[in-house]
């Protein structure tokens, strides 16, 4: 197991380095950064001065090394737009996004896994139909529309929940539902399909032949095997939620990292974009690594391969 | 020790299929005394496995099981609640399946899976269950038993896994073992070994066993009683000695002609075969189901087939009352 973890960790670090290099080179893909910084009216001398000031005149690999070294220590430079350190800018926004992401994926899993299991226990039953309906609806409803409907019903008419902001836990209820509901269908369908496959396998019959109760067969024997692909999917969706919750964040005016990314791209604020890309990618890498470890714990066959 | 504790009469299994009903098993009777070995013989699709799964109560709810009587030591299995059935399964009756490669849960250790049935049914500590597991693994001939408990199924060969399955079935000391072609999926070289082991253990522990097989060589070696199944019916039952000495039903005799017999078969003589294939059992089934493949079929085979008892406990269903040998002469 330890060997497996070390191997995966090594791979994760390699991927992280590759991604960091790509996100660093974005600066140069977007044209001459010094010219962009100096603005349209700047003279050639000004541009040269800025080039030297920001160190753009040095070899790219040296710049990359320097950038990476400060990034590792949490220093991502200064935002062109806010004139603030990127790290503090992101740290402030990231807590909102993290909170939303964790709540969203938890909500999605709590909805999807039990529904998937129930649907698989009784295929084509009324429960299965309801689960199918919910998942088709989840896939079909655009997040912005669903979010607005929730606001109209629960915030404006019933006045149960606040419309927007991030001050209390109540502010997170609707965003969590919208974000989680979007991730739910895929997880549910995968759980259902996995359970159906596992339930028809020989070892489930063995478990029943031992006199195990239906509950024990479902959760101890079947779900543990069926959940393995779901773990990988949930990791990807978690990464997506942290980076891609822009729509949900803007509807509910949650100033999170997704919203910041959108703003920074619009403003050509390269250091911020760079840092966000790096951080979002790191999340993906970390979640995938954790999913691999969790899967290896669930499935002994993965450990030995 | 000689009382009948498994009594099955008129067992019928219907499977709904698209546009009809598959009459997979039609009114079979058999009984078993404590310590006896009954072999159910027949080709694929004859309903052997369905019969054993019906006894264990492991058929899905879509499959309809009926019987005049299906009693296990006084318990009517068909009337038992799911809870009652669970308390029997794994404790008093256990099953060994055909496929050792897929019959163990890949996510749990051998030890966990061995101990599970005992922890479910008996009031024992984990340490006691563990001791029993080690004990049984040694009994089924697995070396370094204690260290195997921490291994996972994928780390064991097919033969070892089937030994584990056998040990698992024995954990609670059941009165009845149902073994559904336990050696079919194994290498020929270890088939005999595993079978011998199973039979020795069953005899040693005084358990009754239903062994499902299509290998008549196996039957001859281990069976007290034989039940020959064909297309969902028991065509002939009896003590193994009687059935092998004087097979009455044309199908039984056909099967016996398919295996070489030392001393009887001549060198170079082709082995017997049974022509044709098993008929479809979807829809109404009447008369003798074997008539389409039987060399001794007559017009009466389409009607009701009588049962005959040529000896104590020996029974067969055929229109040729005094055995097919006479019919052979008539037909010639």
Automatic annotation (TrEMBL), chain A:
CDD domains: TM_PBP2. Its main location: membrane. The chain crosses the membrane at residues 94-118, 130-156, 168-187, 226-255, 275-298. The keyword Coiled coil does not apply. It is a multi-pass membrane protein. Gene3D superfamilies: MetI-like. Residues 94-291 form the ABC transmembrane type-1 domain. GO terms for cellular component: plasma membrane. Belongs to the binding-protein-dependent transport system permease family. This is Peptide ABC transporter permease. It comes from Seohaeicola zhoushanensis.
From TrEMBL, chain B:
InterPro entries: AAA+_ATPase (IPR003593), ABC_Ni/Peptide_Import (IPR050388), ABC_transporter-like_ATP-bd (IPR003439), Oligopep_ABC_C (IPR013563), P-loop_NTPase (IPR027417). The lineage of its organism: Bacteria, Pseudomonadati, Pseudomonadota, Alphaproteobacteria, Rhodobacterales. Belongs to the ABC transporter superfamily. Keywords: ATP-binding, Cell membrane, Membrane, Nucleotide-binding, Transport. It comes from the Bacteria. This is Peptide ABC transporter ATP-binding protein. One of its GO terms (cellular component) is plasma membrane. Residues 6-256 form the ABC transporter domain. It comes from Seohaeicola zhoushanensis. Pfam families: ABC_tran, oligo_HPY. GO terms for biological process: peptide transport; transmembrane transport. Its main location: membrane.
